[in-house]
Amino acid sequence: MPEIDFNSDLGEGFSVYRAGDDAAILPHLTSANIACGFHAGDSRSMRATVALAAKFGVAVGAHPGFDDLQGFGRRMMTLSEDEVYELIVYQVGALLGFTKAAKVELRHVKPHGALYNFAAVHRPTADAICRAVKDIDPSLILFGLSGSALVTAAQACGLTVAQEVFADRRYQGDGTLTPRSQPGAMIENLHEAIDQVMNMLHSGEVRTAQGTWVPVTAHTLCLHGDQPGAAAFASAIRQTLLKEGITLQKPARART
């Protein structure tokens, strides 16, 4: 029976500000990527989101990004490999402290925003991320864009990798995500999102913004938790997956 992990980026508030309704979306997920304080998140949100994920039996992962609170980690920063390594260790280490305190397993790492997108095409950045994750805990699963340089780097590093696809993002002809600065980068129509998910899972390909098709490998499916109506999207996608006989399952550590 086919299976897929269903994840979302959560805990992306700061102080009194919150992005998305984590409590509403979490019951529909199998994995949560929790912001670690650089692009979003703080000590209180990390602790609360870890506890909330544990309440719903959802796997916990770290979601480190560029140190860009004002830009929500979606602006490009030019960093050395050492600087990338250090920001990953710093942020994952912060969330690891909260998971240990809560006696919850830290299961995976997924880079955020501009860091994720750059690592998808820039092998030195991807290698630095992989070294950091491996040095923290070589059993951690690394989430990376399907077919990307980050996936290749993780495999070369000996990490378990979950290749990721997106329900609510449009793709470019090279398999990368359409930049958010371009019109239509986000899929806001539920039926269109479900059609994209079903194509990726059943046919192993996704239709690009240019109308072509590119192959994808789907181990984990992401829906962004900060877009309007995310909880309703998550519920409908989950129901569709189950109706289609697809098992929702946390990513397996043995997957490469």
TrEMBL record:
Sorted alphabetically, which InterPro entries does this protein's record hold? Glyco_hydro/deAcase_b/a-brl (IPR011330), LamB/YcsF/PxpA-like (IPR005501)
Gene Ontology MF terms in the entry: 5-oxoprolinase (ATP-hydrolyzing) activity; ATP binding
Q: Which GO terms describe its biological process?
A: carbohydrate metabolic process
The UniProt function text for this chain reads: Catalyzes the cleavage of 5-oxoproline to form L-glutamate coupled to the hydrolysis of ATP to ADP and inorganic phosphate.
Family membership noted in the UniProt record: Belongs to the LamB/PxpA family.
The name this protein goes by in its record: 5-oxoprolinase subunit A
Keywords assigned by UniProt, alphabetized: ATP-binding, Hydrolase, Nucleotide-binding
Q: What is its EC number?
A: 3.5.2.9
* This protein's record includes keyword Glycosyltransferase: no
Name the source's superkingdom: Bacteria
Q: Which reactions is this enzyme annotated as catalysing?
A: 5-oxo-L-proline + ATP + 2 H2O = L-glutamate + ADP + phosphate + H(+)
Assembly behavior: Forms a complex composed of PxpA, PxpB and PxpC.
Q: Is the keyword Hydrolase assigned to this protein?
A: yes
This protein's gene is called pxpA
